[in-house]
Amino acid sequence: MSVAPSTVASALTPKASRALGDALNDVPTVSAHRTQAAEALNKSAMPSPSHDRPWKYVDPAALELDGFVPSLGTNPSTDNPTTIEGLSVTPFEEAGREGALGRLGKAVAVNSNRISALHYAFLQNGLLVETKPNTEVPEPVRLTREFNTAGALVTPHTLIVAGDNSRLSIIEEYRSCDEPLAALPVVELLVGPGAVVHYTSLHHWGTKTRVFSEQRAITERDSAVRSLSLVTGGLLVKSHIASSLEGRGSSSELYGLSVGASDEHIDFYTLQDHIAEDTRSDLLFKSALGDRSRAVYYGVTKVGLEGRRSDANQENRNLLLSRSAKADSDPVLEILTNDVARVSHGATAGPVDEEELFYIQSRGLTREGAVELLVRGFLGEPLDRSALVESVRQELNAVIEAKLQALGAEA
Question: Residue 179: CB partners within 8 Å, gap ≥ 6?
Answer without folding.
Answer: 150, 151, 206, 208
